[in-house]
Design goal:
- Keywords: 4Fe-4S, Iron, Iron-sulfur, Lyase, Metal-binding, RNA-binding, Tricarboxylic acid cycle.
- InterPro entries: AcnA_IRP_Swivel, Acnase/IPM_dHydase_lsu_aba_1/3, Acoase/IPM_deHydtase_lsu_aba, Aconitase/3IPM_dehydase_swvl, Aconitase/IRP2, Aconitase_4Fe-4S_BS, Aconitase_4Fe-4S_dom, AconitaseA/IPMdHydase_ssu_swvl.
- Its cofactor is [4Fe-4S] cluster.
- There is one protein chain.
- This protein has 32 helices and 34 strands.
- By secondary structure, the chain is an alpha/beta fold.
- The protein has four domains: 105 residues, no CATH class; 195 residues, 2-Layer Sandwich (Aconitase, domain 3), CATH 3.30.499; 209 residues, Aconitase, domain 3 (2-Layer Sandwich), CATH 3.30.499.10; 177 residues, Alpha-Beta Barrel (Aconitase, domain 4).
- The chain is globular and about 80 Å long.
Length: 929
């Protein structure tokens, strides 16, 4: 009885688990204890009696009933998903009865302090982040072999799905064959990467790759991959959940699927069976009422929500949408809102399952069996929204009457900086002066000739107008609206300004199908919005070169030109190296700005152009009504289109089928490859842990301001010829025209560590007056590239650190924004605040994330970046605070205390091991074959 009582006590089991974790080096002991606790866990599983059955049609499924845990009617929808995850995975060790009780009795006002081990059903990747993930898995197989382990242990235990969508670039535009030409160039540039991914698809049993030319990862997930209710091989039904290596994984929240972006490092661990360690979050309830007014689009709605939630503060929190407004909100609009959760800073932005969810599943050609299961399961679990659903209790509340939404933009460099269209001209005029002052430039208009036409290009010229994937092309209403604007404009004789690079990058083949059926594809073509490919193009920096005359004019006049895109990211230096100001807008507004050719215009009152008779034409003359849009969508979007697009999705086109991928369970590395190289993370690794030590005599590699994004830290766009990465490629015989992008070369650490902090718009305050990856080496005060300084510090045996402001690491969830600094020798970052994913990534790479005390900053403490830094009190990594001593060149000392942002006990273990991959690798290598 005593033994039974002990082994049913979660605290006792947790203590035993900790003991075993410290005995892992002794393989036999570890294995024996693991078997004991596995058997105990198996006996404890279902201690709430939640395991039951559900009959749907002629099939019966096993599921874990939430009501077994208590009265959960008023739990938020997202919290019910977490609760089910705990009920199903209860083992008394990783998931305890205490975890289940905590979620069932969730205190909405409590500060997050309870850690759970959450296991998503699957992992989703795109190729920019997927290639380095598969590179790491291949390297882990080599490392396990070197440690005497079983390489078969390195195998995704959760289904891993990758969509190749981030590599197509807009090299050709405005022609009928643009997509064909761009796809051909894509395969030519990326053959090594694609061969590698095909190897991975064959080498790993549970890894699937959707070939190029299919669509954007999030739209393919929404339209095809998502199950909404997942069924495993044992017939157990449970909510479809995922983590993804792209921050906009949250788009799937619109379908009632809980998922969010993580770094590639965390995703690899999840693939290998490592649960996501997380603190149970606060949940913000966002109440939507009313309907969008005439003239407003889903894009305007989401930009309004982004602005509101950024002001409210939702970083690290779940956001859940509810209210009567959902009754009139199409699934595509929900997905648009959910997509931009990273822009408003939340972990997720989720919508519950309801009738609209079921309608979309039918429209997107999901099977009748799947739709019936989703409905029956959600209703059985109290997870279905209808008129009788009790209103959930939330930690915090925000509300929006959608009838108040107005046409909007966001810019000029952050997605949360919404601008009402009525104020766009005045706001642009203010912003352009700020941009020129920051860059220290004086500009002047330039006369040039484009396609035989004499034109003048000035500040504010829209040189890129892109209807891009991701946020908006999943939404038929805004895509049809763009087509109708183009149709009306063409009929009136309007065209895009000659200096505008126009493009349409549909999020899936389905978009082309319904635009064709509506007769709108030819109308978009008339204005230059020909399809350029299916994937993430301009928004990720794959905008391609500007026409030579435009590029020359920008350089001659030092011009501050603009882009307008229907994406979700407009950070500095992201869209194009020559474009200083970037604006987010709905697809129909992108078409309108392409016609106007400038941001220096009031679209409400200034003419957008003239007809053949010289009569002024205005935006109102070409803007469609909501009824026109709705009628077109209703008649032109069909389930048959989804069936045609995804009927044989994994086969790919002839380009993909003709790839000659290597075989074998371990990859044959090519030392001459400039795309794929064996990473150095596991070199010299042993079973023994290196002790955690204090950091002494560290130097500042970069002193950065607020809103430094992962684009600043690890750019995805073009590689400059005179940059460290450019020089590396040229030394290996690669011509500048074949550089491709940083994003496409993430499988080669030599390029990526040279590209770290190489964004052309990065401003390092340690080297004032410079722009780009430049720093001052200390104590020599020598100006050099950040990469060169980092290598010199490593040669000198000196640790380096980063000082930063607020929102450090916001933006895309790039693992290389943590991997790169680690390879450059960065051991710690001190920032005012962090974005969620990047903080986690830093821990995952063994970098210490530290935070200034509230109200303090590098500036308030008088830090110049030229000091030498000592950190004391690190101990085993579990300390909550550290003491920092900064010694200036004159010998004066500043002392201050910082918070340690290793937020969970599991993260402490990761840090002790030197990173999450090292932790997982040692565990797997120690297991019995």
């Amino acid at each position: 009885m005593i033994c039974k009582a002990l082994f049913s006590d979660s605290v006792f089991l947790s203590a035993c688990r900790d003991i075993v974790s410290h005995l892992w080096i002794i393989t036999d002991v570890s294995a024996i204890f693991a078997d004991i606790f596995h058997n105990i866990g198996a006996a404890m599983n279902n201690s709430f009696g939640a395991k039951t059955s559900l009959s749907v049609g002629d099939k019966t499924y096993t599921y874990y009933a939430l009501k077994a845990a208590g009265d959960i009617d008023r739990l938020p929808y997202a919290m019910k998903i977490l609760l089910e995850n705990m009920l199903r995975r209860e083992d008394g060790v990783n998931v305890t009865a205490d975890d289940i009780n905590f979620l069932a009795k969730w205190d909405e006002k409590a500060e997050p302090n309870h850690e759970i081990a959450y296991m998503p059903a699957r992992v989703l990747m795109q190729d920019f982040t997927g290639v380095p993930a598969v590179v790491d898995l291949a390297a882990m197989r080599d490392a396990v072999a070197a440690l005497g382990g079983d390489t078969a242990k390195i195998e995704p235990l959760a289904p891993a799905e990758l969509v190749i969508d981030h590599s197509v670039q807009v090299d050709t535009f405005g022609t009928a064959d643009a997509a064909t030409k761009n796809t051909g160039i894509e395969f030519q540039r990326n053959r090594e990467r694609y061969n590698f991914l095909k190897w991975g698809q064959n080498a790993f049993e549970t890894f699937k790759a959707v070939p190029p030319g299919t669509g954007i990862v999030h739209q393919v997930n929404l339209e095809f991959l998502a199950r909404t209710v997942f069924v495993n091989n044992e017939g157990v039904a449970y909510p479809d959940t995922l983590v993804g290596t792209d921050s906009h994984t949250t788009m799937i929240n619109g379908l009632g699927v809980l998922g969010w972006g993580v770094g590639g490092i965390e995703a690899e661990a999840a693939m290998l069976g490592q649960p996501v360690s997380m603190l149970v979050p606060k949940v913000v309830g966002f109440k939507l009422t009313g309907e969008l007014p005439e003239g407003a689009t889903a894009t305007d709605l989401v930009l309004t929500i982004v602005e509101m939630l950024r002001k409210h503060g939702v970083v690290g929190k779940f956001v859940e949408f509810y209210g009567s407004g959902l009754d009139s909100l199409p699934l595509a609009d929900r997905a648009t809102i959910a997509n931009m959760a990273p822009e408003y800073g939340a972990t997720c932005g989720i919508f519950p399952i309801d009738d609209e969810t079921l309608n979309y599943l039918r429209l997107s050609n999901r099977s009748a069996e799947n739709v019936a299961l989703v409905e029956a399961y959600a209703k059985a679990q109290g997870m279905f929204r209808d008129a009788d659903s009790p209103e959930a209790i939330y930690s915090e509340y925000v509300a929006l009457d959608m009838s108040t939404v107005v046409p909007s933009l966001a810019g000029h460099k952050r997605p949360q900086d919404r601008i009402a269209l009525t104020e766009s001209k005045a706001k642009y005029q203010q912003a352009v002066e700020t941009v020129k002052a920051e860059a220290g430039i004086t500009t002047h208009a330039v006369n040039t000739t484009i396609n035989g036409e004499n034109v003048t290009i000035d500040d504010g010229a829209v040189v890129i107008a892109a209807i891009t994937s991701c946020t908006n092309t999943s939404n038929p209403s805004v895509m049809v609206a763009a087509g109708l604007v183009a149709k009306k404009a063409a009929a009136l004789g309007l065209s895009a300004a000659p200096w505008v690079k126009t493009s349409l990058g549909p999020g899936s083949l389905v978009v082309t199908e319904y635009l064709d059926k509506a007769g709108l594809s030819p109308e978009l073509d008339k204005l230059g919005f020909n399809t350029v490919g299916y994937g993430c193009t301009t928004c990720i920096g794959n905008s391609g070169p500007l026409p030579a005359a435009v590029s020359a004019a920008i350089a001659e006049g030092n011009l501050a030109v603009t882009s307008v895109l229907s994406g979700n990211r407009n950070f500095e230096g992201r869209v194009h190296a020559e474009v200083r100001m970037n604006y987010l807008a709905s697809p129909p507004l992108v078409v309108a700005y392409a016609i106007a050719g400038t941001m220096n215009i009031d679209l409400y009152n200034d003419p957008i152009g003239q007809d053949a008779n010289g009569k002024d034409l205005f935006l109102r003359d070409i803007w469609p009504t909501q009824k026109e849009v709705a009628d077109t969508v209703a008649s032109c979007v069909t389930a048959e289109q989804f069936e045609a697009a995804y009927g044989n999705v994994y086969a790919g086109d002839a380009n993909w089928q003709n790839l000659q991928a290597p075989s074998g369970d371990r990859f044959a590395w090519d030392n001459d490859s400039t795309y794929i190289q064996h990473p150095p993370y596991f070199e010299g690794m042993s079973f023994e842990l290196d002790p955690v030590t204090d950091i002494k005599g560290a130097r500042v590699l970069a002193l950065l301001g607020d809103s430094v994004t992962t684009d600043h830290i690890s750019p995805a766009g073009a590689i400059k010829a005179d940059s460290p990465a450019g020089r590396y490629l040229q030394e290996r015989g690669v011509e500048a025209k074949d550089f491709n992008s940083y994003g496409s070369r993430r499988g080669n650490h030599q390029i990526m560590m040279r590209g770290t902090f190489a964004n052309i718009r990065l401003r390092n305050r340690l080297a004032p007056g410079t722009e780009g990856g430049v720093t001052l080496h200390q104590p020599s005060n020598t100006l050099m590239s950040i990469y060169d300084a980092a290598m010199q510090y490593i040669d000198e045996g000196v640790a380096s650190i980063i000082l930063a402001g607020k929102e450090y690491g916001s933006g895309s969830s790039r693992d290389w924004a943590a991997k790169g600094p680690r390879l450059q020798g960065v051991q710690a970052v001190i920032a005012e605040t962090y974005e969620r994913i990047h903080r986690s990534n830093l821990v995952g790479m063994g970098i210490l994330p530290l935070q200034f005390k509230a109200g303090e900053s590098a500036e308030s403490l008088g830090l110049t970046g030229q000091e030498s830094y000592d950190f004391s009190g690190i101990g085993d990594g579990s300390a909550k605070e550290l003491h920092v001593t900064a010694t200036a060149t004159d010998g004066s000392v500043k002392s201050f205390t910082v918070d340690v942002r290793i937020d969970t006990p599991k993260e402490v273990e990761y840090y002790q091991h030197g990173g999450i991959l090292h932790y997982v690798l040692r565990q797997l290598a120690a297991e019995k074959a």
